[in-house]
Amino acid sequence: MTTTTTTATAPPTRPVVSRPQERPFGLIRHSLALGRRSLIKTLRTPEQLLDVTLQPIIFTLVYVYLLGGAVSGSTQDYVQFLLPAILVQTVLFGGMATGVNLNTDIGKGVFDRFRSLPIGRSAPLIGSVLGDLIRYVVATVSLLTTGFVLGFRVQTGFLSALLACVLTIVFAFCLSWIFVLVGMLVREPGGVQGIAFLVLFPLTFGTSMITPKETLPGWLQTWVEVNPVSHAMEASRALMVGGSAGTHIAWSLGFSVLVLAVFAPLAVRAYRRRT
Amino acid sequence: MTFAFEAEGLVKRFGKTTALDGIDLAGRQGSVLGVLGPNGAGKTTAVRILATLLRPDAGRATVGGLDVVRQAGKVRRLIGLTGQYASVDEDLTGTENLVLIGQLLDLRRTDARARAKELLNDFGLAEAADRPAKTYSGGMRRRLDLAASLVGRPDVIYLDEPTTGLDPVKRDDVWTIIRSLVGDGVTVLLTTQYLEEADALADDISVIDHGKVIANGSPAELKRVVGGQTVLARPADPARLDDAAAVLAAVAGRPADSPTRGVVAVPVSGDAAFTEIVRRLADAGIAVTELSLRLPSLDEVFFTLTGRHTTEEAA
Ligand SMILES: Nc1ncnc2c1ncn2[C@@H]1O[C@H](COP(=O)(O)OP(=O)(O)OP(=O)(O)O)[C@@H](O)[C@H]1O
Ligand SMILES: [Mg+2]
């Protein structure tokens, strides 16, 4: 408030703001502005966060009490084994909604307006993906809280555990572009959900998430070894309860970048084509 | 003559449907072009092409001399679009909606806020500025939608059926806004299904049907083609319907018709005829419960131009 010196009664004869000029770093600014839009929308309708809040609690309870005794001998030991790994599944599942929501939104007039504005074609998509980061954070917090109540304790250190969470979120952020692409290609939101599940199922369950790899049949062990989600889970385990994380981190980050590089451009192309 | 936007021979097909079948449209700088057509005529498709949202299958269109396909990015800096279906974000407040668009148009945050405030004031939405748009009435949403298309001070504004679904008072509000825009030198393309609206706002009218322009001209020219205005009379005593019809026919010099039960109507060429009819009905002692002078409806325009009604399918 430094330049408000106009007289109170005079009607504005000159425009308050003149014609906007193009400024640099447009894609970043526009994506952030749209990310903020998506964040506001989510916070105004908190029901949208119900799935990422409840789903980790339910899955964890089911696994811990159903399998805990059989796999680890006690629920206490099992929760140490399960929690860092199920973190990855939880956050990945949280990303499906990005594709579903975009699919619903895209037919609405708002997206027509975005298309008529001088912004990068990818900005509305990047914005949605960025805004949905809140979902990953909520899912992570809900899961860690549940784990804590059930007796999970970080055995490494705060920073290491934080790194596990950040890595997992980066991993999910990159993989969510697969769901964005599906959201652009499929007509119905229900279809997006269905296909996203089909993609996620072998990725999250073909892992050592709920049982140690050694107990699995040979062919499945082979899949677990190459499945990047296994590596993300093992990285999280190593960073939270101890072990060597290096190769697992490299594997999951490498895969994240690859998915991003392939699927983000495909999603943007599909968005351009969809009218 | 300089045109703010021009479309030549636009063709657009969706599968087997030909939405546009070689359409030409042009908007003179600082004028309102009314595009009049029934449901499915291709109005929205034409607007979407001019707004860079759709690529034509054939033909070309320019805005400010820039091609809407090859120079789409630059065109987007010149245009503002208010689509047929509400394009405001329901969960965002009025201010947030407009500030977002300002930011997407590269305004600095403070400028975007100032512009939002200015527009919300102009559109009578200052009080509702901080409420989510989903709490707005239909008329308020429409105004917010209009405001959103003006954030960047565009040269050309597309308004796709801006008053459909509004009651007459709110419709008048929107009309006032559109008139003030043109006063600012902006060129407007307005689509509508009402001749009355096109007559009230447009400098030029293009009537389109099945993706083709079937008539072009000023409102006056168009009204001349379709027989100017129509006088409608409803005698208080239904038994005097024939007498009333005779009076109307005598003044207009052509037979009167009965469009709905208990009403007689005849096309007339000027206001004088109306006064004359009023006088003669009084002289003949025919009391009327309704007497009006109105423009032909789109349906009547269509009937005159194409020989069929808007609801009939083409043969
Ligand atoms: N995306 C689309 N896919 C298939 N057909 C379409 C599509 N968009 C429009 N059409 C068809 O093209 C024709 C013209 O549609 P358009 O929406 O341009 O008409 P309109 O004049 O705007 O009609 P209305 O007054 O109902 O809004 C219609 O037959 C419509 O069904
Ligand atoms: Mg339409």
TrEMBL record, chain A:
TM annotation in the entry: 49-66, 78-102, 123-152, 158-182, 194-211, 249-268
Coiled-coil ranges (or none): none
Protein's UniProt keywords contain Transport: yes
Compositionally biased spans, kind Low complexity: 1-11
A biological process term (GO) from this entry: response to antibiotic
Protein family according to the UniProt entry: Belongs to the ABC-2 integral membrane protein family.
Identification of the protein by name: Transport permease protein
Lineage start: Bacteria, Bacillati, Actinomycetota, Actinomycetes, Streptosporangiales
UniProtKB/TrEMBL annotation, chain B:
Subcellular location: Cell membrane
GO molecular function: ATP binding; ATP hydrolysis activity
Protein name: Daunorubicin resistance protein DrrA family ABC transporter ATP-binding protein
Membrane topology: Peripheral membrane protein
Gene3D superfamilies xrefs: P-loop containing nucleotide triphosphate hydrolases
The keyword Translocase is assigned to this record: yes
GO CC entries: plasma membrane
Entry-linked Pfam families: ABC_tran
Superkingdom, natural source: Bacteria
The UniProt record lists the keyword Transport: yes
Cross-referenced InterPro entries: AAA+_ATPase, ABC_transporter-like_ATP-bd, ABC_transporter-like_CS, ABC_transporter_ATP-binding, DrrA, P-loop_NTPase
Keywords for the protein's UniProt record, in alphabetical order: Antibiotic resistance, ATP-binding, Cell membrane, Membrane, Nucleotide-binding, Translocase, Transport
Parts of the chain that traverse the membrane: none
Homology family: Belongs to the ABC transporter superfamily. Drug exporter-1 (DrugE1) (TC 3.A.1.105) family.
Biological process according to GO: daunorubicin transport; doxorubicin transport; response to antibiotic
Domain ABC transporter, residue spans: 5-235
Primary location recorded for the protein, binned into one broad class: membrane
